[in-house]
Amino acid sequence: MKNISAGQDIDLRVNLGGILMNNPVAVASGTFGYGREYEDYIDIAGLGAVIVKGTTLEPRHGNPPPRIIETAAGMLNAIGLENPGVDVFVNQYLPYLFEKKVTVIANIAGNTIEEYATIAARLEGCQGIAGIELNISCPNVKQGGLQFGTDPVMVKNVVQAVKAETSLPVMPKLSPNVTNIVEIALAAQEGGADALSMINTLMGMAVDVRTRKPVLANIFGGLSGPAIKPVALRMIYQVYREVDIPILGGGGIMNATDALEFIMVGAAAVSIGTGNFVNPQMAGDILAELYYYMQENDMKSLNEIVGIAVQK
Amino acid sequence: MPIMEKGLVINHQQLAQDMYVMEFLAPSIAKECKPGQFLHVRPGNTNDPLLRRPLSLYDVDQEKGSISLLYRVVGKGTDLLTGLKVNDYIDIMGPLGRGFSLPESPKNALLVGGGVGIAPLVYLGRVLKERECQVTVMCGAANAGQLVVDDKFQQLDITFLSATIDGSAGYKGLVTDLLVTQVKPGGFDIIYTCGPEPMMDLVALYAAIHHIWGEVSLEEHMACGVGACLGCARRLKASDETYAKVCKDGPVFNMKEVEF
Prior knowledge:
Largest interface: A-B, 36 and 32 residues
Number of strands of chain B: 16
Oligomer: heterodimer
Radius of gyration of chain A: 18 Å
Distance between the termini of chain A: 35 Å
Helix content of chain B: 10-25%
Number of helices of chain B: 6
CATH class of the largest domain in chain B: Alpha Beta
Largest sheet of chain B: 7 strands, antiparallel
């Protein structure tokens, strides 16, 4: 993968609002652990970025099982932000990723605005973090998460609070579970967001007709996978027309054609999520295919086609 | 080290109404395999079904470089798998998870399987025999037609006792009834079990009563299979605060660690 970015005329690098990526293919938070879990399958330093599992201030045990269920062309998850807390992330996981020269984007979640700010402050000055993704859209936790992502005033406030505590680029991950995504995106931009990550999972559920109960112990879960791609494309298209900051696009990407669709509706870079479960080498495969696409189309940079399908 | 490989299917047979056995060549993975581990199998190049399916190692021939999987058709994924023909390729990653602990010295081992849960006990039985263990297998099934592995154990010179619900083969009743009422306790040093949870619960109780060390192999829906998504969470004991991940911490656990 690394050799690809060294190609003669083609420049795969992406500046995602100050997050410097060697190439445009990242892996999404919650689907790739802390990177190490996938080291046997893929060169994690060659990825555009590894967005690590969502980190909270204190450790969280997560939701009771069942936590996941496959649905038509997708899956529901209600993990509940299980994670060891920010201190363990900083002391045990981050140094390894730094040593391996992995481009790390930390993903943080809090119960309150103050908690988001405290985690951001804790990450300030830590070696090896390229940017912060704000999880304001997790549908699976009782407090925090989604409630921040659905109210434009809260979105603006939480972005502002985090910006005040960090020198790193800040990228809120927007929830699709809203009536007006543009309003939320503009609020994030107004709060000082450097980039936007779109989209998180769509809230859904499944029922076990045998037991006559919801499948997930949490009842509701986040839908991801190819099933949500059209929704993600539509939302990025709408937001791209209205904002000035770059967008990291994802939602059901399974191949380079999917990735190109996201780029053409305005994504400056893409993230692979559920696809990693299907093929742990998917991000690398997609990057290679994007490179060949650029060669074939005599392109020097993906910027030439970012948003090209959008009628401004 | 687990890897991804395309296995070349060399044999694929229907053994019972909904049970299949598939053998494929995957030499790189085969040489890494240990009993109780699993492969994460992509049923097809489709978006629906989407995720891989965790299937336990049924048998491994490291010299030949082949792996066999025994599976029951339970949904879209396994149904799609049945369509694979000889000379097709199967997309697999593995071997994954923590397998069975193997005794250092020869022991008298009892293996209790129920339904398709018998699958990992075949490979385990083979390896235990290689280690000069004395091995007894008890297998429960709905009926004689579902008892698909008896000849495998016979080939391995393993004592095979069966129980069927309808009495069409072996003991009539549950395999745990067979265990409790028909087998003299005390003879076994070690017990391994895989199958329905109520069965494993009783086997673990039997082991505890008779002070026999043992392991269980658990099953859970999985997405990543490598400990990244945290989907296959399992609270091992009711008093535990944290969740084990069946894919990475298991699928094999010490019987004493698990409450059913």
